[in-house]
């Protein structure tokens, strides 16, 4: 039996690769390696000015202001120079200095970027320099290892060069960013490179193009995917799957506009707290803007659902009310942050908002989590953990009272503890209006993605003055639950393409069966069979290429069609199909009726042939 790519990756013995944030030792290695790289660059290119060089979760980078672009040959020379520096075993020495002393030293070496960094440091905080021997230093807070000789040159690799703006501001200087990675051992580096190669093979942008699922067009604009017929089929299958589940669980479908007056988002708080991620206000002129308050593309669906709730006075007997919408939203992501389907400017959220009484909150929250877990099971997504995204008490970006936040966070914590879920708390990751339970998925390459989310919200009902008539006749505030099991269709599909390596499970494949005729004389029979399969709800097609059988099989394999049905004289005479599947290989001749029933069952049960 042929294993799926995900099963092969799961079975493969791989080295555990920690993130920088998970390992203090790795953090020191990478921070020091970044300084060694910067020192090597300035030795080879004295006119290059260094800016910042932080660690990342898989390595580090440094930004340089250099007149000429770095070449592949330059990267090799830089790595060779780094090896020399490491071999010198230079001590890494921390020096605490006064602000005046630091400013003088920076001016002496004419490094204006360091001056700007120095000016941003909070007065009263210690100012530290780190020296690599007596040859090089940088303004830095650390931490570092004690000696460059503690770095393993065979566990370090320079990866690529990319453009970057100083301070991320496209109106400021264009810099060159060298990305690199560093590990404790050469074995870890080898495993990291293997995963990078595997990630390239699974890249949803490449596979999406090869499988004909979606495209991007410059004339339309960056971050705005165009879905082909096959890609639209995958979207529709996912939408219908979730809609069917929602109907069973008492959700009501709604539809809302793509734009609204900016006042709506001022009331919700999005305009004040989320404006930099929203597309600019639209108005014909300043006078119209003053009268109409302008219009904006919606970044969220919740204020619209709130208006539907608020349209009439609700009774406690009606609650919970569960409104669901596959609503397209728009967010102004910077062009440098866009990445295929996983980071776009227009995307569809499988959004729902539940309006519940305080007494209903716990049960409804648990029911939402149950829905999300059932979705993950159907999509074969198993490796995930729960993140409790709470407010950072030190931040001023959150709206609402301390009491409201405490109640919401307590409700989420209580729910995951009742479910016995493995979780961790992440202060600062909450939405500005409420805490969240986020599901963090680890894919076949141990990369992290956020998928489903559930949020408890006491604040928007307060801001919009939502009410219901309680059993005693008084007016009370409902609590809102925001939830999205997929997160967004675009991101989910991008993740699924990479997790499955483009090899969708049978029920989700845009083309489930391709019929291959050994010669044209069997085409009529082939069309009859395909038509009967289509009437049974099976996505089947005939290969019309006229190619030889071997090439048709290769093309179907390349397109990752789950089931191939070969038709010749024996099959036509016996009303059978010679079946070959990607999962199990050759299965022999099977009656058309049995093929139909097995594929129908696979669709209904989200299983295999």
Number of helices: 20
What is the CA-atom radius of gyration, in angstroms?
Answer: 29 Å
Cα(first) to Cα(last) distance is 13 Å
Outline the biggest β-sheet. 8 strands, mixed
Q: Would you tell me the overall average pLDDT?
A: 89
In terms of per-residue confidence, which ranges show pLDDT below 50 for 5 or more consecutive residues? 1-6, 8-13
Oligomer: single chain
Coarse morphology? globular
Proportion of β residues?
A: 15-25%
Which terms would index this structure?
609 residues, alpha+beta, 8-stranded mixed β-sheet
Please give a structural write-up.
The chain has an 8-stranded mixed sheet with strand order 10-14-15-22-19-18-16-17, with helices on both faces. Helix 4 (99-108) runs antiparallel to helix 5 and helix 7 packs across helix 16. The chain has 20 helices and 27 strands. The protein has 609 residues and is an alpha+beta fold. It starts with a helix and ends with a helix.
In short:
It contains 20 helices and 27 strands.
Write the SSE topology.
Elements: H1 5-11, H2 24-44, E1 49-50, E2 60-65, H3 72-87, E3 92-97, H4 99-108, H5 112-120, E4 127-132, E5 136-139, E6 156-165, E7 174-182, H6 186-202, H7 204-210, E8 214-215, E9 226-227, H8 229-248, E10 252-253, E11 259-261, H9 262-268, H10 270-274, H11 286-292, E12 295-297, H12 302-310, E13 314-315, E14 321-330, E15 346-356, H13 361-378, E16 384-390, H14 402-419, E17 423-427, E18 436-442, E19 448-457, H15 459-463, E20 468-469, E21 475-476, E22 479-484, H16 489-499, E23 513-517, H17 523-535, E24 540-542, H18 549-558, E25 563-567, H19 569-574, E26 576-581, E27 585-591, H20 592-605
Helix pairs in contact: 2-3, 4-5, 7-16, 13-14
């Amino acid at each position: 039996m042929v294993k799926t790519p995900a099963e092969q990756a799961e079975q493969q013995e791989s080295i555990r690769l920690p993130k920088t944030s998970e390992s203090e030792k790795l953090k020191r290695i990478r921070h020091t390696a970044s300084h060694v790289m910067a020192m090597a660059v300035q030795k080879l290119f004295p006119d290059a000015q260094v800016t910042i060089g932080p660690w990342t979760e898989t390595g580090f980078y440094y930004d340089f202001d250099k007149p000429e672009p770095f070449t592949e040959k330059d990267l090799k020379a830089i790595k060779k120079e780094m090896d020399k520096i490491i071999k010198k075993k230079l001590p890494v020495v921390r020096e605490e200095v006064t602000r005046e002393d630091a400013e003088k030293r920076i001016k002496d070496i004419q490094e204006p970027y360091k001056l700007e960094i120095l000016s941003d440091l909070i007065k009263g905080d210690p100012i530290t320099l780190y020296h690599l021997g007596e040859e090089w230093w940088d303004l830095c807070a650390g931490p570092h290892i004690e000696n460059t000789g503690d770095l393993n040159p065979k566990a370090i690799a320079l990866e690529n060069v990319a453009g970057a703006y100083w301070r991320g501001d496209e109106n400021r200087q264009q810099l060159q960013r060298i990305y690199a990675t560093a590990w404790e051992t050469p074995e870890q580096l080898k495993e990291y490179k293997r995963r990078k190669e595997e990630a390239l093979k699974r890249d949803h942008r490449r596979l999406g193009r090869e499988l004909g699922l979606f495209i991007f067009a410059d004339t339309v604009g960056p971050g705005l995917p165009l879905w082909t017929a096959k890609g639209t089929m995958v979207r529709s299958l996912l939408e219908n799957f979730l809609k069917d589940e929602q109907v069973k669980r008492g959700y009501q479908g709604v539809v809302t506009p793509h734009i609204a007056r900016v006042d709506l988002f001022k009331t919700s708080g999005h305009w004040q707290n989320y404006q930099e991620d929203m597309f600019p206000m639209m108005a014909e002129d300043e006078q119209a803007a003053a009268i109409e308050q302008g219009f904006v593309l919606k970044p969220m669906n919740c204020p619209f659902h709130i208006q539907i709730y608020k349209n009439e006075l609700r009774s406690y007997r009606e609650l919970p009310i569960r409104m669901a919408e596959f609503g397209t939203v728009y967010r102004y992501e910077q062009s440098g942050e866009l990445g295929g389907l996983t980071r776009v400017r227009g995307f569809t959220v499988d959004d729902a908002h539940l309006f519940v009484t305080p007494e209903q909150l716990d049960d409804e929250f648990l029911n939402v989590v149950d829905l999300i877990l059932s979705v993950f099971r159907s999509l074969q997504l198993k490796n995930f953990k729960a993140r409790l995204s709470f407010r950072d008490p030190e931040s001023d970006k959150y709206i609402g009272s301390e009491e409201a936040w405490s109640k919401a966070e307590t409700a989420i914590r209580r729910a995951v503890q009742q479910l016995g879920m493995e979780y961790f708390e992440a202060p600062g990751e909450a939405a500005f209006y409420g805490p969240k339970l986020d599901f963090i998925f680890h894919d076949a390459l141990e990369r992290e993605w956020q998928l489903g989310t559930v949020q408890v919200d006491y604040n928007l009902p307060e801001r919009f003055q939502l009410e219901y008539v309680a059993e005693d006749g008084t007016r009370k505030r409902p609590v809102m639950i925001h939830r999205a099991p997929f997160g967004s269709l675009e991101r989910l599909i991008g993740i699924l393409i990479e997790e499955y390596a483009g090899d969708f499970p049978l029920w989700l494949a845009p083309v489930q069966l391709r019929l291959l005729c050994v010669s044209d004389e069997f085409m009529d029979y082939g069309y009859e069979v395909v038509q009967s399969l289509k009437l049974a709800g099976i996505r089947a097609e005939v290969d019309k290429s006229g190619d030889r059988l071997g090439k048709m099989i290769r093309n179907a394999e390349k397109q990752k069609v789950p089931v191939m049905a070969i038709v010749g004289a024996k099959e036509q005479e016996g009303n059978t199909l010679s079946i070959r599947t990607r999962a199990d290989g050759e299965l022999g001749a099977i009656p058309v009726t049995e093929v139909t029933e097995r594929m129908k069952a696979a669709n209904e049960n989200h299983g295999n042939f």
